[in-house]
Write a structure and sequence with these properties.
mainly alpha
Length: about 140
């Protein structure tokens, strides 16, 4: 009996992980990030990392090195590729969608920092997941 329960919990957590991935992907594409850019992939992975471990938001200390290890590259390349992806989306993305997610940041003359983008997108994905699962019914993320 214990095995069945653990299997069901594992499936719930797998489902949550997939939903987070899908919400992140949908949001990035809707905003105008280009899936063909490596920075898009690095940014998506960064959002996933910070979603599961909010303490890891220190991009230079945790996020860039972790993403770099996963993609077998350098953390400086991760940072630059994300910056390029953000610049591209900021210049060519869906302005209305960007304004709905980034609000006042859209009124600045400069693009947001990588950290700002990651932080805001993690929060937006978290909101969408909470809407989908309802508050309190999200499976424990500690095992993910």
């Amino acid at each position: 009996m214990v095995c069945r329960f653990e299997g069901a919990m594992g499936m719930e957590q797998d489902s949550l992980k997939i939903d987070i991935y899908m919400e992140t992907t949908y949001l990035l594409l809707r905003l105008g990030f280009q899936a063909r850019q490596m920075g898009y992939r690095y940014l998506r992975e960064s959002i996933m990392l910070v979603y599961h471990d909010p303490e890891a938001l220190s991009v230079t200390k945790f996020v860039y090195p972790d993403v770099a290890r996963k993609f077998h590259t350098l953390d400086t390349q991760v940072e630059g590729a994300i910056r390029n992806a953000v610049e591209t989306a900021w210049e060519r993305g869906d302005r209305e969608a960007l304004e709905s997610v980034f609000g006042e940041l859209c009124n600045r003359d400069i693009r947001p920092t990588n950290t700002e983008v990651i932080e805001i997108l993690v929060e937006k994905v978290r909101q969408r997941i909470e809407e989908k699962y309802g508050n309190g019914s999200i499976p424990d993320e500690g095992i993910l």
